[in-house]
């Protein structure tokens, strides 16, 4: 399913390039912000929208996230 590198390893991406992570962080901050304003968001609508976005991003995802720090990632590529 993913992009293969040498020796059958799957190519990964840095955690901060994950669209799924950023969408979910934005959703968390939006929901927290809504608690302090007069904006009312129904839980059902929120879950439905977030679930739909996550499904779309999951289908579009090609590379898994690597949670290691960027320096170890560079060293690994130089190998």
Explain the overall architecture:
This protein is mostly helical. The chain has one domain. The protein contains three helices and two strands. A two-stranded parallel sheet has the order 1-2. The two termini are 24 Å apart. 0% of the residues are buried. The model has no long low-confidence stretch (mean pLDDT 80).
Present the secondary structure layout.
Blueprint: E1 13-14, H1 19-35, H2 43-60, E2 65-66, H3 70-78
Parallel strand pairs: 1-2
* Proportion of helical residues: 55-70%
Widest beta sheet: strand line-up: 1-2
Structural class: mainly alpha
Alpha plus pi helix count: 3
| Rg calc | 17 Å
**Series of H and E elements:** EHHEH
Q: Can you count the beta strands?
A: 2
How many structural units, i.e. domains?
Answer: 1
Biggest sheet overview = 2 strands, parallel
User: Would you identify the regions where 5 or more consecutive residues have pLDDT less than 50?
Assistant: none
Oligomer: single chain
Average pLDDT, rounded to a whole number, is: 80
Alpha-carbon distance between the two ends: 24 Å
Shape: elongated
Instruction: Report strand %.
Output: 5-15%
């Amino acid at each position: 399913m993913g992009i293969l590198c040498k020796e059958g390893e799957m190519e990964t991406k840095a955690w901060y390039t994950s669209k799924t992570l950023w969408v979910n962080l934005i959703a968390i901050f939006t929901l927290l912000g809504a608690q302090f304003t007069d904006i009312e968001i129904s839980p059902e609508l929120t879950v439905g929208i977030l679930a739909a976005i996550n499904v779309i991003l999951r289908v579009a995802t090609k590379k898994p996230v690597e949670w290691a720090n960027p320096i170890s990632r560079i060293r690994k590529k130089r190998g």
